[in-house]
Amino acid sequence: MFGGCAGGGRVTLLPPVTTTASAETASHKIRSLGEIDPWRPLADDADTQTLSMFGREDLIAPTSSDYAAMKCAPLPDVGDPMTVIAERARATRIVIVNESHERSEHRGFTARVAKALSPLGYDVLAMEALSNPPDNVTGRFLPPFRQRPEQPFLEDDDGYYLSEAGFGRLGRQAKALGYRLLPYEARHDPGEANAPWEQRIAKREEEQAQTLAAYLRENPQARVLVHVGYSHAGEVPHTNGQRWMAARLKAMTGIDPLTVSQTTCRGGGATTRLAVLPAKEPAGMFDLVVDHPTARFVRRRPAWRLAAGDRAVAIPRALRPMKGWRIVEARVEGEPRGAVPMDRVAIRPGEDVALLLPPGRYRLGVIDVAPAAKSPAQ
Questions:
Q1: What is the distance between the alpha carbons of residues 49 and 160, in angstroms, rounded to a whole number?
Q2: What pLDDT score does 4 carry?
Q3: Is the pTM here over 0.85, yes or no?
Q4: Using CA atoms, how far apart are residues 59 and 56, in angstroms rounded to an integer?
Q5: Three-class SS string for 154-221?
Q6: For residue 268, how far is the Cα from the chain centroid?
Q7: How far apart are CA 117 and CA 19, in angstroms?
Q8: DSSP labels for 80-137?
Q9: Region 263-268: what's the mean pLDDT?
């Protein structure tokens, strides 16, 4: 038995460790990591979402605009953001919270929102990241959350970006609270590949809104929390005339959603607070703006998870790589390999990177990532 804890609760790492070569997996996600040079991870139009998916926000933060300070004036005379969100949510059936795809903290915040809204009757969590296959897909070809909704965890096959540990925990929190998971992403249409960008965006936003509106019509008592990326939460047309999903959903249903942006302001204070919508944004674009503090990292991992109760656990030296990327995963004891692990992080030789885990018993797995083969032109 390995062992490890850092105060206030015990984390136990159980043998044996499962070792897999990336050649033994069919994961496009792992192949994407293999295409990133471990020692020049931000070179050549870096795939920052893949780095975030594998727990390496610390590599992204120094240069990403999603981490750069965007200070906004604090919203005066208001209380804790979660209290304000819950109070405002009473007056609607739809709450929409956005995220940066590079910042797992935003998923942690939505998990807290889900907990705050549950006593108010919110019982559906819609996420654009959930796999949404065509209607003619049935049975064993459906994503696991559709086949086995009673499972307390998400699986890697439930959606491409849901493999990130924070997304997995958002799913766990929602399931534990009794939320139903609702996919609503627009289906891929090969015929649209050469259409103008504006047309493709408009089609996606319209289809997303139609799916959510249909569910609300068919379930008139349902109250829905929607987790989206970036501008999809925009409640009024953009300055270029583009109408995003939230604006279209509002028009279709006649329901005024509570829209919450986590991507508009950042780094304004020492604690998470509500901020004034910047003047550069169209009036009414978002109802509430959440301003998170500047991101900090401890042993290369996001400090917000320690503040939320995780323990920093050393990765045993025997599991650290000699070359290239190695993915280290910690799954709850008894859960299958397909489950999104409680933590998943890609490490390089010589790094002291911690696992971040709540108290519990876990089994470790490692995946050695083969570098992508380079073409002769490279």
A1: 11
A2: 52
A3: yes
A4: 6
A5: CEHHHCHHHHCHHHHHHHHHHHHHCCEEEECCCCCCHHHCCCCHHHHHHHHHHHHHHHHHHHHHHCCC
A6: 22
A7: 40
A8: -HHHHHHHHHTT-SEEEEEE-TT-HHHHHHHHHHHHHHGGGT--EEEETTS----TT-
A9: 97
Main-chain phi, psi angles of 292, to 5 degrees = -85, 150
Same domain, 310 and 284: no
Angle 308-341-272 from CA coordinates, rounded to 5°: 25
Q: Mark whether 248 and 99 lie in a shared domain.
A: yes
Q: Do both 309 and 286 map to the same domain?
A: no
Contact present, 331 and 365 (Cβ < 8 Å): yes
C-alpha to C-alpha distances, 144 to 54, 115, 173, 231, 365, nearest whole angstrom: 21, 23, 17, 28, 21
**Structural domains counted in the chain:** 2
Residues 27-53 pLDDT 10s? 899 999 999 999 999 987 779 999 999
> Is 232 inside any structural domain?
yes
Q: What angle do CA 80, 82, 86 make, to 5 degrees?
A: 120
**pLDDT tens string 146-167:** 999 999 999 999 999 999 999 9
Determine the structural domain holding residue 187 and report its residue range.
81-291
- On whether both 85 and 58 belong to a single domain, the answer is no
Joined together, the tokens standing for residue 195 give 């259409």
Which domain CATH number covers 229? 3.40.50
Q: Are residues 157 and 22 in the same domain?
A: no
Same structural domain, 280 and 313:
no
Alpha-carbon torsion, ordered 32, 34, 39, 44, to 10 deg: -40
pLDDT digit string, tens, across residues 167-188? 999 999 999 999 999 999 999 8
**CB neighbours (10 Å) of residue 324?**
18
Give the model's pLDDT for residue 21. 81
Mean pLDDT within 325-338:
97
Residue 174: how many CA atoms within 13 Å on its side-chain side? 31
Please measure the distance between the N-terminal and C-terminal CA atoms of the chain and give it in whole angstroms: 45
Tokens at 232, concatenated: 């999809």
109: nearest Cα among 130, 94, 95: 95
